[in-house]
Amino acid sequence: MNQLSRRRFLKIGAGSIVASAGLRQAARLAEPARAAAQSVVRRVPTFCNICFWECGAIASVRDGKLWKIEGNPLDPLSHGRLCPRGTGGIGAQFDPDRLRSPLIRVSHRGEDKWKAVTWEEALNVVAEKMQKIKSDYGPESFALFTHSLGGRFIQHTMRAYGTENITEPSFAQCRGPRDVGFTLTYGDDPRSPERTDIENAQCIVLIGSHLGENMHNTQVQEFAHAVGRGASIIVVDPRFSVAASKAKYYLPIKPGTDIALLLAWMNVIVSEKLYDKEYIDKYGFGFDQFAQIVQPYTPEWAYPETGIEPETIRATAREMARYRPATLIHPGRHTNWYGDDAQRSRAIALLNALMGSWGRKGGLWMPASLDIPAYPYPPYPKPARPAADNPGNKYPFADQSISTGIRDATISGQPYPIKGWMVYSTNLIYSLPSPPETIRAIQNLDFLVVIDTVPSEIAGWADVVLPESIYLERYDDLHTNPFKQPYIALRQPVVDAPADQKPNWWIAKTLAEKLGLGAYYPWKDIEEYLAWRVKAAGCSFEQLKRDGVILGAKQPIYFDEGAAATFDTPSKKIEFYSVQLQRAGFDPVPKYTRPDPGPPGSYRLLYGRAPMHTFSRTQTNPLLMDLESENSVWLNATEAVRLGFKNGDYVRLRNQDGVLSNRIAVKATERIRPDCVYMVHGFGHTAKGLRGAVGKGASDTQLMTRYKTDPLMGGTGLHVNFVTIEPEV
Q1: Which helix (H) or strand (E) holds 450?
Q2: Between vectors from CA 160 to CA 154 and to CA 165, what angle results, nearest 5°?
Q3: How many domains does the structure of the chain reveal?
Q4: What is the extent of the structural domain holding 575?
Q5: What's the CATH code of the domain at 676?
Q6: Is 708 a domain residue?
Q7: 532 and 437: one domain?
Q8: In whole angstroms, what separates CA 565 from the centre of its chain?
Q9: Which of 45, 276, 278, 341 is the most exposed place for a label (fewest CB within 10 A)?
Q10: 30 pLDDT exceeds 80?
């Protein structure tokens, strides 16, 4: 392949990450243009809810029926384009497995036997149970597990009720180690969406970040353009991912040895004086101590640990330095791997600091935001007891609630009993490691209520299930995340719910009124609330409804453009050497610990995402399941031959504790190291109500019976499980 055709191939390949699956869906959904022209089409701006990125979108309704959804060109996140999940979002309305009415359990928990009731009946039961738990144990004994923007009003009701035990699994099971590692270094975290300036980066380093498979729309669009303009890409991954296929350097690292490679890179950059000295002199703290600590970690030292040859380590370190400060070492998203993940993320933060990329073009920009006043609610009652997730401040750098900490308190009753759970929009059986522990905790509860759109596994254990309308059928709170350009985005109803589903704000408000907390909802409906906030920000609610998004004035996002170079650390600088970590008994500079090996003959279990699915939430969406209806297990081709398996054979995985998976097809490939296997997360459903997804593929979570807890912040490292492979009998 000549150089010109190779570049063209890479550019087309990167662009197809975004477009190909979406085009396939559009072809299925769209009728001929002539028929559309003869129909009445109504276009409604909103924003997506298939993942947390929440891109601006425009939904089209033709002849009264939901027809298609596409990107809003005014939106700074989508730039007028949606990912495959976004374009397939309309399938959520037509999902045949949707919950249609409130349900009350009529048998033992977990048996999926229900009685359909009215909302009045269901919420009366919820309010009665909550009041009893409050009377018997105190309001703190009721906990909320929540995910995404839609849970904001539910959180408001729970705080008015009197509990601070409100937790999001996305902290301890996803982004928490990353956020803590960066905050220890810079005094701030990478945010959501991430402040990655892929658009302007000249060198992009991805360490286990599967851009193109982990489908975050803005980043994937920018990554496709970066590949097309010839940016230097370095990918570190045990698996040859889609992103790796675009790389100048691909480093097939031994799983669990990332910190060793990061230390070796820093050793080269420091010893060869390739770092940004002016930047570090101006903004850095403790650099001399840091430099002394990384001195022993040579590429030769790292080679037997990582499997990466010394000259490759040196070449890639020099490649990063060549393009600084427009070199971005991506902070990642799902960073809970081996139990030392906050320090791993801190090492990534320090490598960015050596490049001088924090606050610089092509690195990590400073977020801009609009001042949107909060609604003037009464003050919340002060809980009599602190949150139960982190007793004694065992994990001293946890700055958010630890979901597995709430689970532990529910099991042990310490520091006090947790007797009620409300679960909103998160399938805890799949989002928390070790499902048996989750089930054990549930069995200690007096009451469990689940708010969801489908009868998920966690719903099967509930006492009451409340059916929420999907995002295309409801208003939510304003979307105002800081970004490159500040904005306000509005989610508004496009079509009516097909049955007796209700929006989260209505559920939260009505429940609060039944709990005697009506004063916390002084507005009569969600439009009144939203209009007040938009007007208080000096903007027009009518314009927001019409356009879906209002952009604020551009602000400086780089230090050299006038963005404030402030660091909320003890030294008020970038902390190469962390005194606060040292005083708490931790390594002030990240230190490498060799990962534990698995049993003889086993493979380390790795997992990731697919571009058409979000966690375990989308497997009942008929459009997205049509793109990928089950997962497969990636197995090194040589290992497959040795074991007697060929591509497409169905097998079962057995983990180190004897747990056996559902059947799963083998993907025999040279694109993965021989010491590990890989599977996409979210498949292998067991809930009877998920008729279109039950039994399709295997569940990685089912095999995650072990995890290592990060000592800094309580996150759960999940890449510590091992499997053997057995033929399907």
Answers
A1: strand 447-452
A2: 70
A3: 3
A4: 173-367+558-583
A5: 2.40.40.20
A6: yes
A7: yes
A8: 28
A9: 278
A10: no
CA 160 vs. chain centroid, Å, equals 28
Cβ proximity of 242 and 102 under 8 Å: no
153 & 194 share domain: no
For residue 92, the 8-state DSSP code is: G
Asked whether residue 375 is domain-assigned, the answer is no
Question: Could you tell me if residue 474 is inside a domain?
Answer: yes
**Contact 410/178 with Cβ under 8 angstroms?**
no
Kindly state whether residues 140 and 256 are assigned to the same domain. Answer: no
On whether residue 676 sits in a domain, the answer given is yes
287/406 same-domain check: no
Same-domain check for residues 302 and 402 = no
pTM, to two decimals: 0.94
Contacts of 37 (CB under 8 A, 6+ apart): none
Chain centroid to CA 26: 26
Residue 629 and residue 684: Cα distance in Å, rounded? Answer: 10
Task: Write the single-letter amino acid at 689.
Answer: G
The gap from C-alpha 709 to its chain's centroid, in whole angstroms, comes to 19
Q: How far apart are CA 330 and CA 524, in angstroms?
A: 44
**How far is it, in rounded angstroms, from Cα 513 to Cα 500?**
20
CB atoms inside a 10 Å sphere around CB 242: 19
For residue 148 the two structure tokens come to: 């995404």
Which helix H or strand E contains 679, and what residues bound it? Answer: strand 676-680
CB 470 within 8 A of CB 93: yes
Residue 165 half-sphere exposure, CB side, CA atoms within 13 Å?
A: 33
Supply φ then ψ for residue 526, to 5 degrees.
Answer: -65, -35
CATH number, residue 243: 3.40.228.10
370-418 pLDDT per residue, tens: 999 999 999 999 999 999 999 999 999 999 999 999 999 999 999 999 9
Mean pLDDT of 112-131: 96
Same-domain check for residues 621 and 649:
yes
DSSP annotation of 379? P
